[in-house]
Specification:
about 400 residues; binds magnesium ion; 2 domains; single chain; binds adenosine-5'-diphosphate; 10 strands
Length: about 400
């Protein structure tokens, strides 16, 4: 864990001052979801190591109505890392260069983006484009910066931290971004006198009573990474076995949080029933995430996988009859024949006919005759042939 910036000072308390039962305050205030946030926060301290084995670390979105407790939770989590009075920064108020700098300043620490959900662009605040974050998921630069020299080199600092987004409205962005986000929604529905007294205490606890957390966790690196490496694939398989989850990315993101929950429970000493409750909560989050994003039916997904495998070169189409580069035109009988030649597993033709109309990753357009870019009539190659095709618009980049 390191900060690449002198302005970023962490003040670490010692063990004797540590209030080590603080997780119970978080639980009392926010229930299992509060502890999900903690497991993400803990994981962000190892985001580089996690990306090294899994290639990615998700974004965490903390949303909910005003007054739900988002600021309270995030400020508390910063205190665990030794920072007082910190919440995050508003990317829509910063210049592009400043945003880029913020992203490259830290490694193995969270970067919190706050309240960037303004409705429209104004002169001062340009609506932040979440799609800029896409590459940060895999730890690549969020944007290239021009170098201050006479050449045209750009500097692309890798992203080594973890992204937390907190705001009142949900992020509205492309599906590609939504798939990368794990979302925690907080509302005032579960506020009670007990939760209020817990948040009051969270608000007044000083950094020195909490920040030993950072040392405790970084010292447990080997154990944490063992949990992550061993348990993530098991949770991932489990999530994908549920009928409600079919996005591999959603399963992976949430499986990572589950294995981090196991690590957190051991290192912080949470009771088993509480750990189980947090794990169940993450499973529910994965299911609702899957519902929230438009995902294709498994039959359709399998169709596109086979299609991509066979028709892998757009310049020498094997399955795509379309002469229009924006479209994909497939004749189903032809598809079945070619897939068999390629010894590819394919869904039943009747299922394809049933589900392909729902295709979203490449949106279904219509069924109509197409002047084929692949087949010609008879011996003479000059004679065009018309084939009946299912038309789809090409995929928006994922
Ligand atoms: N879980 C909770 N239960 C009861 N009261 C809460 C809870 N979370 C926050 N509050 C109270 O609500 C007020 C607003 O919280 P805040 O964190 O600023 O909300 P947000 O950032 O979501 O708008 C705080 O003064 C806090 O004491
Ligand atoms: Mg707030």
């Amino acid at each position: 864990m390191k900060s690449l910036n002198k302005g970023f000072q962490l003040q670490i308390g010692n063990h004797s001052e540590y209030k080590k039962d603080w997780p119970q305050l978080v639980y009392q205030a926010f229930g299992p979801k509060g502890l999900v946030a903690i497991s993400f926060w803990l994981g962000s301290l190892f985001s580089e190591q996690i990306r090294a084995i899994h290639k990615s670390y998700p974004f965490l979105e903390i949303v909910g109505e005003p007054g739900a407790g988002k600021t309270t939770l995030v400020e508390f989590m910063w205190k665990l890392l030794g920072k007082a009075d910190e919440e995050g920064f508003d990317p829509s108020k910063a210049t592009a260069a400043a945003v880029s700098r913020k992203f490259s300043q830290v490694s193995n620490l969270p970067v919190v983006l706050i309240e960037a959900d303004r409705e429209e662009d104004t002169a001062k605040a340009k609506k932040f484009d979440w799609d800029e974050l896409k590459t940060a998921y895999n730890g690549r630069a969020s944007r290239a910066r021009g170098m201050k020299n006479s050449g045209n080199e750009t500097y692309e600092p890798p992203f080594r931290g973890a992204i937390v987004i907190t705001q009142n409205a949900e992020v509205s962005a492309s599906e590609a971004i939504l798939q990368r986000i794990t979302q925690l929604y907080f509302d005032k529905g579960r506020h009670s006198r007990e939760s209020k007294s817990a948040t009051d205490e969270m608000n007044v606890l000083p950094v020195k009573n909490l920040s030993y957390f950072l040392k405790q966790i970084t010292m447990a690196e080997t154990r944490v990474m063992d949990f992550v490496a061993t348990n993530t694939p098991i949770y991932e398989d489990h999530l994908l076995s549920l009928k409600d989850i079919h996005s591999v990315r959603i399963a992976k993101n949430h499986a990572q949080l589950m294995s981090l929950t196991d690590a957190m429970s051991e290192v912080l000493g949470l009771p088993d029933n509480q750990r189980d409750e947090v794990i169940d909560c993450i499973q529910d989050l994965a299911i609702s995430r899957q519902r929230a994003i438009v995902a294709d039916h498994p039959v359709v997904q399998q169709f596109w996988e086979t299609y991509e495998y066979i028709n892998n070169d757009e310049d020498e189409p094997v399955l795509n009859h379309s002469r229009n580069r924006e479209l994909i035109a497939v004749n189903l009988n032809h598809f079945v024949r070619v897939a068999n030649e390629f010894k590819q597993q394919i869904p039943l033709l009747s299922d394809l006919k049933k589900y392909l109309k729902t295709s979203k990753s490449r949106k279904f357009q219509s069924i109509k005759p197409v002047n084929s870019a692949i087949e010609t009539r008879g011996e003479s190659y000059s004679q065009p042939k018309t084939v009946k095709c299912w038309l789809f618009t090409k995929e928006i980049s994922q």
